[in-house]
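ok trying again, last paste got cut off:
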Amino acid sequence: MSDEFAATSKFRSLSGVTAALLRAHLIALALLGSLWALEVHHYLPWTFFKQQYLALFLALALSSVFLAVKARTKEAGDRVPWYDWFFAAGGLLVGLYVVVMYPTIAYRLGILTPDRWIMGGLAILLILEATRRVAGGTLAWLALGVILYAKFAYLLPGMFYAKGSSWERIASYLYLDSNGMLGLPLDVAAGVVVAFIFFGQALYAVGGDKFLTDLALIATGRYRGGPAKVSVVSSALFGTVSGSAVANVVVDGAITIPLMKRTGFPAHLAAAIEAVASNGGQITPPVMGAAAFLMAEFLNIPYGQVALAAAIPACLYYLALFTQIDLEAAKRGLAGLPAEQIPKLRSVMRRGWVFVIPLLILIYTLMVENWEAGKAGMVAVIAVFFVGALQKETRASFKKILTALEETGRILLDIAVITALAGMVIGALHLSGFTFKISLLLVTISGGNVFLLLVVTALGCLFLGLPLPTTVVYITLAILAAPALIQLGIHPLAAHLFLFYFGMVSLITPPDCLPVYIAAAIARANFWQTGWTAMRLGIAAYVVPFVFALHPALILVGTAGEIIVAVVTAALGVIILGVGAAGYLFRPLGWGKRILLWIAGLLLLLPTWSGIWLVADAIGLAIGLAVVLWEWNRTPLAGAALAAPGRAGR
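nice, full thing came through this time. structure:
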């Protein structure tokens, strides 16, 4: 399976002094981010600008990328070519320049001097090349196109016209301004995301991953389709500490996909279940994907509020998935796992109860105390190592701690480079003035119709999501599309969550969906068959965002009565929608009944509470109950007819 993990084959396999140097870079990157998240800089005897920290963080990340990541896929990868040593040195140079000179730069930011725009030009080129290596050429070319627009917009007609800026101003602005590469996206990655990546790696270091898997086995392993349900629960749990769909598929899928296949699930279905379950980790509190932390910063609200708002939609996502898995297992007559393969709850909790403490600390500090997300994450990391030390079998050695730091640094490489690039894109759009025009354009295209604007925005998310990661899709549309959505009356948090969901759902939407591709490779399944099945299993993610955008009670905005009615009807709607998508209830369903169930599910999902919407819910419930009761009554008759003498031949 040489192509299975194309995402990880980009890294070199180094040895000797070079490997030690790279390891030192990665550990330093993780330690630097951890100390900043713990706010250690507040206790230093000198003033330290945030831009100085971000520049040092970016310097270490760029230097590490050019040491660790191949320039070409076909490269042997056992040594660092001479030109990458120069690139690595250049990465350190552009970062250290800001670290040393920023106290002077800060007071004369608008002045264009040769050293600033030369360093800025070098930084832009290095980030573009680093992005090409870690995330592919499409993203780099897109960013370059936006930068070129900031320069040559004066050549374009109509609303795309802008005055244009000089190369010197573009380079200096993107390099040093707080709207550029050292802006909000990199700030969130270097001050918040680093803590939660380290939290996940700390859990792995002390054996917390096995505890999560055992809990999933105990909760769902004994029921029909048990291995698939274990995959969903364990992937959701892993997702809360990794926030990465690809990482979840690689780590969790290597275990759950073969297990699902052995118990009777077709290869494409096993792969699709794992991809959809892993992708849901990005939207599952308490720890979500990186874009969720950015959302809190964009909206200037505590991260705990974002996580709380995302809880009900995440439950609906997994409810639809669980419904379909259960019915797929029933359709194929698949039983749960044997009792001997399921661990005992008492022994699991005796060994792993300590891992509950860091999770409770994390939830309490985020949701109740409203701590800064990075600080809460690092306190949880410290708690993981502390409680792990209470038992010999979970105690992390110094070597394991260093490995956790190294892996944290390695995962941060992609995030640091992509968020720096996202900052450049935001800066170039601000510089050209395009961000102020796109909202007007979107409102004009939609004719002021909220639903049509949501459809246009969702399609834009899916289109951008073909080549781009969720975080970049969200950042781009949070800048360009969110103001238009808010202008037409959508609640700001609902608007941003809508963009986050459709950025996330692009990872399970063919043709370019890396988690699905990796899961299909592990399962040795057909990619297209897996992709279409993943879309069907993840159906809630395509529908629920429209519901909470139009009726924010689903994200806990509204009165208690509105929220309860919205949650109950949405849960019923998602279950009925899942039954229609699976095409099976007590027996296989024809297309007519499936369409009726889809209509019933959508009517139940419509915004509720009063007037015509309440009537629509009642109609949906009546249609759904009618189909279910019809199938319930018909199934025993069909079984009796088949069992009757003389009917076997028929």
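cool. Residues 1-8, 637-650 have pLDDT under 50 and may be disordered. DSSP finds 28 helices and no strands in the chain.
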